[in-house]
Write a structure and sequence with these properties.
- The chain is an alpha+beta fold.
- The protein is 50% helix and 13% strand.
- The strands form 5 sheets. Strands 7, 8, 9, 10 and 11 form a 5-stranded antiparallel sheet that branches.
- Strand 3 and strand 4 form a beta hairpin.
- The chain starts with a helix and ends with a helix.
- The N terminus is likely disordered.
Length: 547
């Protein structure tokens, strides 16, 4: 792929995936409390030792499982320094970041050791009183080694983050907008349009649709793929409320631990900064302790939930049909209530009062993973579930969805009749050569509703339901009628009544503001083009996407 094409295409990509990409170099920091205070593990979760296995391609280069594991290890290290949004990067996210680094290198971009060193010295976690602290960095490295990481891994992780940042900058952060472009854009954007619309409402034609069971069955047969019965899952849930561990968390809140927490999480206390300076620990000791306790409660709840899930996993695997009883006994030891979810639709927005798509997906998947879910945080609690029943999704029969089919058929037929009426009207109006006569005939159309409105692209927006007519009107001559315009609620015809050129008296005062806006638009377009190329040139094995 040509370098210019790559440079043209990365913005929507950065926009859509800012959770993991921008988190690295704009310092949107969310650190795992438990992960920083207790040794963790870097590594793979379920793919065995096949690190050399090819799992995708990036711009013509093969990508191995080992490549993605390296990215995940790097992300884990960054999380420990507060430079990542979390430690649970999945394979899809790792693949995206790997591909961005490949794209950057293809542009000849690189990050030298001096750039990495400079970034580290300026990062707040490694500073004391506004200055780089070798002691703090040494402490961080020691914690990293105890957790199974290394200084070299951290440096390479930073290099990747800075490389992605360079690519972003190259993709359009300095888009030039000329005065000629500004004037042309302003003239086009400040034109005022007066429009009339004929709306051939689908609802108005419903009365003309005949009740034809045979036709409805034929409609179903043609669109059978659109009709499915959603699956359902039922489970037992055990809840671990964060608040249950308040006393234990308070006991951990020694001055030394709270100070360590404060020093490694400056992002939590930015709101207390004055005159651009971060507060000293003693000045916000009370707030730091409260944040420490809150984080400790979350992590203790998660830790207990993991211990329970591990025990339940082992016990349930050996219990056969006695799974539910074993699960209940383990919950009783935790002094936790077991809640029966009943059957929950696969697409349900919540499980009772628990709004957590992640928990629902874990329950659905639990049938394929020995019944017990991973712990899932939702609200102020952590949940572990035991799947007890699953009804798979299936194709619907006509009888199961006959009411919906009848409604869909009637709507489709009414839309067809409305479209035919609009097409006849368009044909008759097109045959009238005189503009005044054409407008008169437009006003006298039958079987539709006539509405008049005015709009300007600069900010005087048309009613949302009339957007199709507004878009067509911008391309019409005065007294010219559009083609039939598909629209929600029924097709439309538009006729342009008047076009008023832009008033340029305010152009000079708005010029620089417009230059900034237009520059942003050009940048978004540039990155959007890159994303399109990115999506076609970078492919991950579907088996990894869900992991």
């Amino acid at each position: 792929m040509a370098p210019k094409m790559i440079i043209k295409k990365l913005n929507t990509m950065f926009h859509k995936h800012s959770r993991w990409l921008f988190g690295g170099f704009t310092i949107v920091i969310i650190i795992s409390f438990m992960g920083f205070l207790t040794p963790g593990q870097f590594g793979c979760d379920g793919f065995g030792s096949g690190s050399g296995m090819t799992v995708g391609a990036a711009f013509g280069e093969k990508v191995t499982l080992g490549d993605l594991e390296q990215i995940r290890r790097e992300n884990d290290v960054l999380a420990r320094a507060g430079m990542s949004m979390g430690r649970d990067m999945d394979y899809s996210e790792a693949f995206q970041r790997y591909c961005l680094e490949v794209a950057a290198r293809r542009q000849g971009l690189a990050v030298g050791d001096a750039e990495v060193i400079d970034f580290v010295k300026k990062f707040p976690v490694f500073q004391e009183n506004g200055q780089y602290s070798p002691a703090r960095y040494k402490e961080f490295k020691e914690n990293l080694v105890r957790a199974g990481g290394s200084d070299e891994l951290f440096v390479e992780a930073l290099r990747g983050v800075l490389l992605s940042a360079k690519l972003q900058n190259q993709l359009g952060y300095n888009r030039v907008v000329t005065d000629g472009e500004l004037e042309a854009f302003y003239r086009r954007d400040n034109v005022k349009y007066n429009v009339k619309t004929a709306i051939f409402s689908t609802d108005a034609y419903l009365k003309d649709v005949k009740n034809d069971p045979a036709a409805m069955k034929a409609y179903f047969d043609e669109h059978a793929g659109n009709y499915r019965i959603s699956g359902k899952v039922a489970a037992f849930l055990v809840e671990f409320p964060n608040a249950r561990y308040l006393k234990e968390a308070e006991a951990k809140a020694t001055d030394a631990e709270v100070k360590k927490f404060f020093d490694t999480r400056p992002q939590l206390f930015v709101k207390l900064a004055k005159d651009g300076k971060m507060p000293e620990f003693e000045a916000c000791k009370k707030e730091a302790k409260a944040e420490f306790i809150k984080a400790a409660c979350r992590d203790l709840a998660m830790r207990h939930a993991y211990e329970f899930a591990a025990a339940a996993y082992d016990a349930v695997s050996e219990a056969g049909d006695g799974r539910a009883e074993v699960f209940r006994k383990l919950a009783a030891k935790e002094k936790a209530e077991v809640v029966d979810t009943g059957l929950v639709d696969f697409n349900a927005p919540a499980i009772g009062k628990i709004s957590s798509p992640e928990l629902l997906q874990n329950l659905i998947a639990a049938f394929d993973n020995h019944w017990v879910t991973n712990p899932v945080a939702a609200g102020e609690s952590v949940f572990v579930g035991l799947a007890r029943e699953r009804i798979p999704e299936k194709a619907a029969t006509f009888n199961e969805v006959s009411a919906q089919v009848a409604a869909d058929y009637r709507n489709a037929e009414a839309t067809r009749l409305a479209t035919e009426a609009a097409a006849k009207a368009e044909e008759s109006l097109a045959a009238i050569e005189d503009g005044t006569a054409r407008l008169k005939a437009f006003n006298e159309l039958k079987g539709c509703t006539i509405r008049e409105f005015r709009f300007s692209p600069a900010g005087e927006f048309p009613p949302m339901e009339l957007f199709p007519s507004a878009g067509a009107a911008m391309r019409l001559n005065v007294d010219e009628v559009s083609k039939v315009l598909p629209a929600e609620g029924g097709p439309q015809l538009a006729i342009l009544l008047k076009r008023t050129p832009a008033d340029m008296k305010d152009f000079e005062s708005k010029k620089e503001q417009l230059r900034s806006s237009l520059g942003n638009m050009k940048r978004e377009l540039s990155i959007g083009v890159f994303e399109e190329e990115f999506m076609t040139q970078c492919q991950l094995d579907p088996k990894l996407v869900q992991r």
